[in-house]
Specification:
Strands 1-4-3-2-5-6 form a 6-stranded mixed beta sheet, with helices on both faces. 55% of the residues lie in helices and 8% in strands. The chain is of the alpha/beta class. The protein folds into 3 domains: 182 residues, Nucleotidyltransferase, domain 5 (2-Layer Sandwich), CATH 3.30.420.10; 88 residues, HRDC domain (DNA polymerase, domain 1, Orthogonal Bundle), CATH 1.10.150.80; 97 residues, Orthogonal Bundle (DNA polymerase, domain 1), CATH 1.10.150.80.
Length: 398
């Protein structure tokens, strides 16, 4: 079997497990999906490289779950680039590492301005890595040989890249920081499903009236059901703009819907009965959506100055403090503390603005120990200064 053959039979899979078990050192792992083409986010190709073993390109749709492989390699270190993107689809087929090294996250912690795999490989290894097939439809069968070569190269350089970055992290005193970040990636829980996913429909905010919103919801749900059944990306069936246009136009008949120029897409005409049934459901339902659902969300920061001036001051001072820490440590601001966590801390700070209280609040927002050590003291100081700034106009007025 050559390095560019696809492992898609039980016999080839058994040989791959045996070879990977006999190799040494970390395993480089990558996965290719078909985002924009398929409904699911499943892996359509999984690439694994190990020194002493070689490269293996596994076909999950043909092989099914890969628990037998995980039993052999799950306890070893896996090297991934942007692990958060691949871990969900790897776990879906039974591949779940205990330890990882993320070369993209490492590049961020090292202060590299661009962290795409091709850029990092070129800068640290001096090798140009073409990325021409990154947006390909990996559900295609058979996969072209040029795609397989591209996929193999994505993992064959990862272990060398890992070794260089590990040395750089150690030299910069950031090895422990990286270890905490890698573990946080492994421990990260999936986001809960949205209560009303149809509200993510592009252009939904331009729809006026609850009845039109009900039609938009019904059309979105009908499209989502068909996309799920066919395993096709919803937007490839009927674009968001078409659903929005139909909800705004509120056609009075199936013929009017068919005549709507903006209602286009590969399934707009072939599934016309489905879309018309959805419109009729939206027009007749008693279950009308609310115009703006209640949610535990903060207003956008641009509205804070008017709605919560104290929080606005805290956010200004916190951003300045974090920017200074970022420059001192050569770590991006968003890696010092998640922007959402910063906003929530500023909007609803602890009763006491001490470093200990800020540290406790940061833990509630899943901050890692290194982030608390780096930021709690400075954020406490920033919040105190913000309180003083907010009080100054009142004192001047008196």
């Amino acid at each position: 079997m050559t390095d560019r053959d696809v492992v898609d039979t039980p016999e080839a899979y058994a040989l791959a497990i045996e070879a990977l078990a006999s190799g040494h050192g970390p395993l480089a792992v990558d996965a290719e999906r078909a985002s924009g083409f398929r409904y699911s986010q499943r892996a359509y190709l999984i690439q694994i490289f190990r020194r002493g073993s070689g490269t293996f390109l596994l076909d999950p749709p043909a092989l099914g779950r890969l628990d037998d492989l995980n039993a052999v390699i799950g306890g070893d270190e896996w090297v991934l680039h942007a692990a958060s993107q691949d871990l969900p689809c790897l776990r879906e087929v039974g591949l779940d590492p205990h330890t990882i090294f993320d070369t993209e996250l490492s590049a961020r912690l090292l202060g590299m301005p661009r962290v795409g795999l091709g850029t990092v490989v070129e800068e640290l290894l001096g090798i140009h890595l073409a990325k021409e097939h990154s947006a390909a439809d990996w559900s295609t069968r058979p996969l072209p040989q040029s795609w397989l070569t591209y996929a193999a190269l994505d993992v064959e350089l990862l272990v060398d890249l890992r070794d260089i970055e590990a040395e750089m992290l150690d030299a910069a005193g950031k090895a422990e920081i990286a270890a905490q970040e890698f573990q946080a990636e492994l421990d990260k829980k999936p986001k809960p499903a949205r209560a009303e996913p149809w509200r993510r429909l592009s252009g939904v905010h331009s729809i006026r009236g609850l009845r039109s919103l009900a039609v938009a919801r019904s059309l979105w749900e009908a499209r989502d059901q068909l996309a799920r059944e066919l395993d096709v990306s919803p937007g490839r069936l009927v674009p968001d703009a078409s659903l929005t246009a139909a909800a705004i136009a509120m056609p009075a008949s199936k013929r009017d819907l068919a005549a709507l120029k903006a209602f286009s897409g590969r399934a707009s005409r072939t599934e016309l009965d489905r879309w018309w049934a959805a419109i009729e459901e939206g027009v007749s339902t008693d279950d009308l959506p609310v115009l703006r659902p209640h949610a535990d969300t903060m207003p956008p920061p641009r509205a804070w100055a008017e709605r919560n001036p104290e929080a606005h001051e805290r956010l200004k001072h916190a951003r300045a403090a974090l920017a200074a820490i970022s420059e001192e440590r050569s770590i991006p601001v968003e890696n010092l503390l998640l922007p959402e966590a910063v906003r929530r801390l500023c909007w609803s700070p602890p009763a006491e603005l001490t470093p200990a209280a800020l540290a406790d609040a940061m833990r509630e927002h899943d901050a890692r120990p290194w982030q608390i050590e780096a930021c709690a003291q400075r954020l406490s100081q920033a919040f105190v200064e913000a309180s003083q700034s907010a009080a100054e106009p009142a004192e001047d007025a008196s």
